[in-house]
Specification:
Length: about 210
């Protein structure tokens, strides 16, 4: 079976929960339990994903939504999101702010400014950014959160680094924050080419 068959687009996280997750992904390498919480891999459009409290957007320093996923957020979520961001002004690398999600299915968006390609201390800054995302999710009392491959693609963070940092940091957070309300952390992948590094790192977790 190919990777494209193993990860299936589903209409919502709730739909997947109503079926056996094994129908959508191989349990050994697509889902892990950490302190009774779940880290999952899912291929989906993160802005359309249902059944999660919030999702993460890899933001610009000036918090302008701009093109790409930012344009999808703006066009689908309406003007209220950018209006909230405009009131916050500029933020620095590794900082995260939380807004409402407008007309989208999620309740909130976590706008995270992470490092860019060839930036000094790239891996350390990426880890700090992911840690701050999870800290803000806890502060907001979120129970479910979808995170894209942080920095991969337009911002040039190598995919193997993104997979390693994200999976390891999420695991460490769920292990060390036993009072966290997070029950589901979904690593939401857009392209089947992104699957293998995350699958490998997740399956290697103890």
């Amino acid at each position: 079976m190919t990777a494209s068959h193993l990860v299936t687009l589903v209409p919502s996280l709730n739909d997947a929960r109503q079926h056996s997750w094994g129908a959508f992904m191989c349990a050994e390498n697509r889902e892990k339990k950490v302190n009774g919480r779940t880290i999952r891999l899912l291929q989906h459009d993160i802005t359309l994903l249902e059944g999660v409290d919030a999702f993460v957007f890899y933001a610009q320093h000036d918090l302008r939504l701009g093109s790409g996923w930012g344009n999808a957020i703006m066009s689908r979520g309406g003007p209220s999101i950018q209006k909230e961001l405009d009131a916050l002004g500029r933020i620095e690398t590794c900082q995260v702010v939380v807004t409402g999600a407008g007309e989208l299915k999620a309740k909130h968006i976590l706008h995270a400014v992470g490092p860019r390609f060839q930036e000094a201390n790239l891996e350390a800054k990426l880890k700090k950014t992911v840690s701050e995302v999870l800290a803000q999710a806890d502060k907001a009392g979120l129970e479910s959160l979808a995170i894209p491959p942080m920095g991969y693609g337009f911002y040039g963070v190598p995919l193997p680094m993104t997979a390693k940092v994200m999976v390891d940091t999420i695991k460490e957070h769920l292990e060390s924050h036993k009072d966290s309300k997070l029950k589901d952390v979904v690593i939401c992948l857009n392209d089947k080419r992104e699957i293998a590094p995350f699958e490998s790192r997740l399956s290697a977790l103890n």
